[in-house]
Write a structure and sequence with these properties.
heterodimer, A: mainly beta, 10 strands, 0% helix, B: mainly beta, 7-stranded mixed beta sheet, 4-stranded antiparallel beta sheet, 11 strands, globular
Chain lengths: 107, 123
């Protein structure tokens, strides 16, 4: 199975900050990497698919990059509603493993 | 509007069985692969299973293989997860998720999720 390692596991930041979350795959997954946001008590919501494509309706302050094994999610100018847990996911091959999550908290 | 509504989550004893359902609406159900994803309380997301749009192909996480069976009824726009030989490690919120598959590069992601149903396995 392909393992997905996210870092950091938690992150404190302030409104207006720029943050970056990284995700590393244990083998190449080409561009088959998605990012989801989950708020407490809610279902996950896709933000970025295929490494860098912004899902319709998601603010442009979210962006993704990378290829092969190393990927990043960047959030520019953090807003209060962005404090949540973020997960990467590979959909290159089953099982479609998620990263362990990054909890973004208000500093 | 796409809607996915899970049901069937209850408390069950170890070794027991349960069938979860997911009622879909707002899109042509028969045109999309579907998934189950679970999340133990306070933990991360775990992909559980995938079923093809025609129901003929399915995949499972190793943790549930041989115990869980995914199925669908396209005439009812419904997805199911039959869970047998349940253990405490199966305690989780179970989400159904719609697949979006596109492009020549076989790219896919989960574009809609239900609200989840809680399965508790405890004696």
């Amino acid at each position: 199975d392909i393992q997905m390692t996210q870092s950091p596991s938690s992150l404190s930041a302030s409104v207006g900050d720029r943050v970056t979350i990284t995700c590393r795959a244990s083998q190449s997954i080409s561009s088959h990497l998605n990012w989801y946001q989950q708020k407490p008590g809610k279902a996950p919501k896709v933000l970025i698919y295929a490494t860098s494509s912004l899902q319709r309706g998601v603010p442009s302050r979210f962006s993704g990059s990378g290829s092969g094994t190393d990927f990043t999610l960047t959030i520019n100018s953090l807003q209060p509603e962005d404090f949540a847990t973020y997960y990467c996911q590979q959909t290159y091959i089953t099982p479609y493993i998620f990263g362990q999550g990054t909890k973004l908290e208000i500093k | 509007e796409v809607q996915l509504v899970e049901s069937g989550g209850v408390a069950v004893q170890p070794g027991g069985s349960l069938r979860l359902s997911c009622a879909a609406s707002g899109f042509p159900f028969h045109d999309y692969d579907m998934h189950w994803v679970r999340q133990a309380p306070g933990k991360g997301l775990e992909w559980v299973s995938l079923i093809s749009r025609d129901g003929f192909i399915s995949y499972y996480a190793d943790s549930v293989k041989g115990r869980f069976t995914i199925s669908r009824d396209n005439s009812k726009s419904s997805l199911y997860l039959q869970m047998n030989s349940l253990t405490a490690e199966d305690t989780a919120f179970y989400y159904c998720a719609k697949d979006y598959y596109y492009g020549s590069g076989s790219l896919r992601y989960f574009d809609y999720w239900g609200q989840g149903t809680l399965v508790t396995v405890s004696s």
